[in-house]
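Question thread 4412

I'm putting together a teaching handout and wanted feedback from people who do this every day. The idea is simple: show students a protein as raw sequence, then show them the structure tokens that encode its fold, then repeat with a second protein so they can compare. Below is the first pair exactly as I plan to print it.
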Amino acid sequence: MTNPALDFLRFVEGASPRLSMSRLLDRILQKSRMLSHAEAGTIFTLRKRGARAWLEPMHIQNDVVRVKLANFIVPVGPGTIAGYVAHSGKTVMLSDVYKISSGRAYSFNPDNEHPDYKTRSMFCFPLKSYTDRVIGVVQLINARRRGTRTPVPFDTSIRQLVVAISPVISRLIERNDMLEQLRKKNQRIATLQTQTEQAFQLSLSLLSRAAEIHDEETGNHVYRVGEYSHHLGRLTGRSVAWCNILRYSAQLHDVGKMSIDASVLKKRGRLDPAERAEMDQHTTYGYQILTGTPRLEMAAEVALNHHEKWDGTGYPNGLKDEAIPLSARIVSLADVYDALRSERPYKPAFSHRKAVQILTRGDERIDPAGHFDPQLLQLFSAHNREFNAIWKGLAD
């Protein structure tokens, strides 16, 4: 012997347990009509706003005439049949809607009929939550039997069947409603996160550009340093997430220069000791600007340490070897490569080949063994053509 509630559940969910609310309600109405032999029906959901409550039709089905989902609502309360069922929580079974006694709390209005259709028998039952709260109504119209040309009354046994299946239907609706609300909420959160991320990245871009206004570095320098750093980070085996953070952190490596006097930044000749001391403060200034914000923790780390050197001769703290954060060691190498490729008041722009030669062999200003992490330098040397491709792709 089959379990009608289980049978109903299997039909409604079909092959997919994650039906949309609309599809779920459509299948609930379809199965309700199959069980009751109804030729037509409507499924309503109950809506509330303050003290006002109404039924909103979600799906209408009719095997006799083509109908469209009309834009109407049914007030909850005495008056209409569906409204009464929603208000009282009781089922209503009528063999002829045109013969409702005047003493009933509901009536049938033939003005609402389709011009080519006539309602005769009706079975209307509530959908209730586990707390016995009405959440919707199923209204079935015109039971049919094989061999009959006119509607017949609904079989009274359908009442007992509804007692079994109504809780199942209600649980399905409540569960899917909750899941649909969660999906919509997650979509809104995702949209907000995207918008927030775009605003964050724009702020970073503006901040990194602001640092270049009074400096000699122009064009796409900060973006190239970000891309070199991201690529070198990936070559070390770091995660994509870590390297994505490194990319925007690298773009802010010189943000502290906003706090340096423009006359020092713009000076064409060699800086005197006081000016050099002021210039070297940009690492500390950058750290002060960026620290305190969790998403800029690596950026603050890079700003403070990207002028430290492997042999401990860098600034501001003379850190040595792996005491220098990996992020800063990577940005240091990326920054110097881009500086070599770029024109400066004191030097021409070097070719890629010349820049690689200086970074790997050294010159009068750069000591590769003393300045850079040897493992990073080895990775750069082995993959130097990829850095040249980045340069070409983001050339000024």
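The second pair follows. I'd like the answer to focus on this one:
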Amino acid sequence: MRRYGAVLRGNPQYAKLWLAQVVSLTGDWFGTVVLSTLVAALSGGSGLALSLFFLSRFVPPLLLSAQVGVITDRYNRKHVLVVSNLSRALIIPLFLLVDTPDLLWLVYVVSTAQAVMSALFEPAQSAILPSLLRDEDLIYGNTLLNVTWSAMLAIGAAAGGLFTASFGPTAALTVNALTFLLAGVLTSSIVYDPMRRRAATDKPKEQTTFADGVRFLRRHPSLIWTLLVKGATSLGNVDTLLAVLATQVFIVGNRGELSLSILYAVFGVGAFFGPLIINRWNNGSIARMRWFVLMGFVFSFSAWWLMGVAGSLAFLAFAVLIRGVGGSINWTFSSVMVQRQTPDAYLGRMFSIDYAFFYAATILSTLAHGALVDVLGIDGMQTILFGTALVAGLPLLVWAVQMPRLNRLKAVGAGD
């Protein structure tokens, strides 16, 4: 862990971004626990209602991916981050208006508005990282951001469940809004030169187009496969099924908010330790990180089979932990590979495509899970979980077959 402390000390502008993430994620997981249990309660436990809630968070980033990529490459990425944080601080209090089933629609509307502003944040954060970090710290900086997300998932979800049970959803959502306000202040203090990493041959920003980004991607097929990793991992998305299992099967707390917070927390623990442990064998090459991605697919595939045979909350939590390990490994090292393979002028558009694949797979998985829960009911949960395991095995098989060919292709950047 000393290496990660050195990254924060040696990269002060990155440290501000990291601290902003710590603050905002703490509140964000408060909101996730509150709203998931609220939707389940107001809808009578409908799987479709829960799926619609998660879709309201996933669809906007997918639909806006092309525009977000251009915005991230054309405008100051620091300003994009600040606007995203402050706007969410203003949007979140609107959830407080929902207190009866006839207002459930408002949850979806406000969640969609929040997701629109969140869509700006992730690609901008990933694209700005190489400008805030020394080159030798890029892998560790990405890992630290990802394990911080995981740690705050574990801490924020657990604390969110306890806080909500103790003080109610109004207090939890208020904390959520205040954390985004503080994150906006922190990101506004970052000192960042958007032209530092731009080559003299790069096109002027006003000529930045999404079509140009697609042409760049077509010239570099190995990068295409890297951009598919997050989406392939999310073909077995956990959100809807965890919410159903926590609120209808393994219920702890009034509405299952404690059991849901436990499952999210152990997912965060797995996601925290996965990249940290694997990094011990990382030599920085893209070829090595492709092997790590294969391992991530193995963990994810295995986790769904374990969930299918879980007969207790404790065993389910163990399976969810394994799923967290696999997902975090793939998220972390696919991001590093994109940064290593892509010139700065194209990073925003490449990450917008990267996240578009992720959200598309998440939407398909969420829709399928919600529909299957409503059709098969709780008695059919094992069938749903085993079916998800089969789907999760497809990217594992494809990546294992394609990896040797990818390692023979010429990389875009100097990471191989």
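Top answer:
Good format. For the second protein you could add a caption like this: Residues 9-192+210-408 form a domain with the Growth Hormone; Chain: A; fold (CATH 1.20.1250.20). Residues 12-42 form the longest helix (31 residues).
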